[in-house]
Amino acid sequence: MSDYRFLKWEVFDDGQIVRISLNRPEQRNAQNRGMLVELDEAFARAEADDTVRVVILAGEGPMFSSGHDIGSKQAREEFSPGPGQHPTAAINGGTREGAEKIMLQEWHYFFQNNLRWRNLRKITIAQVHGDVFSAGLMLIWACDLIVGSEEVRFADVVGTRLGMCGMEYFGHPWEFGPRRTKELMLTGDAIGIEEAYRLGMVSKIFKREELAERTVEFARRIATVPTMAALLIKESVNQSVDNMGFYNALQACFSLHQLNHAHWVGVRDDKRATAGEEQGVPNWRAAPPVVAAVKDQVRADA
């Protein structure tokens, strides 16, 4: 049973385990604003319930998540009325005023949300299948553990497709390692789940047909750990990583991400002026690279 429009909510073991599933399969679980609002509400609901010990984050349909929704009719309607309100306005015809609104939107929906979910007072497990692209990485990196099926690929294509320096929650160097991050961002290539396991990013690999059941079994093992011990383990690791610079690096890279947006707004405005466009009429050909269809997001030879 689901109480949400864009999510599914499932309960196991008398409420000790909750599975929250992204539920926009036709859009490959692209993250529109409504989904992110509901996801924050669902995490808060699980956090407030003392019965819940472990929260699983999964996705319906053929893949876990294709990243941000930057073009569906539903996503555009969520940011109407008003110019420059869409998080990707700097890409899709925004103005310098739009860049400021982008920063506020992304700070709340993409950055602070993920920080809050990372520090949730529950143990969280990302259950992934299919492909995990770009902003899908942010969701799973906010979880304590990641499990997935054998076919999973991970990629952030915003560098090669959008001319951006990564996602708003830039956990890449901590998850992939510094040089692998540079390579993946500069080429748009993907890594498979076996490599992600070797990097320490993924905890368990299951067969696709067994993924849902085996993830719940994994969650049951964790649910037996006393709450105080589980949360102190989580806090000890998170504080250790923060003291190594993780939190400050996230803050700095979010600022760089916004500078990158502002750059493209400036490029667009300069090209618009050079082309003698009428005020407010977007020149789509002057845009930086745009996102291709989901099936074409990762290079065939990756």
Automatic annotation (TrEMBL):
Gene Ontology annotations of biological process type: fatty acid beta-oxidation
Keyword set includes Lipid metabolism: yes
Source taxon at top rank: Bacteria
Region (Disordered): 67-93
GO MF entries: catalytic activity
InterPro entries (alphabetical): ClpP/crotonase-like_dom_sf, Enoyl-CoA_hydra/iso
Keywords: Lipid metabolism
CDD domains in alphabetical order: crotonase-like (cd06558)
Compositionally skewed regions (Basic and acidic residues) per UniProt: 70-79
Keyword Disulfide bond: no
One Pfam entry name: ECH_1
PANTHER family for this protein: ENOYL-COA HYDRATASE ECHA13-RELATED, ENOYL-COA HYDRATASE-RELATED
Protein name: Putative enoyl-CoA hydratase EchA13
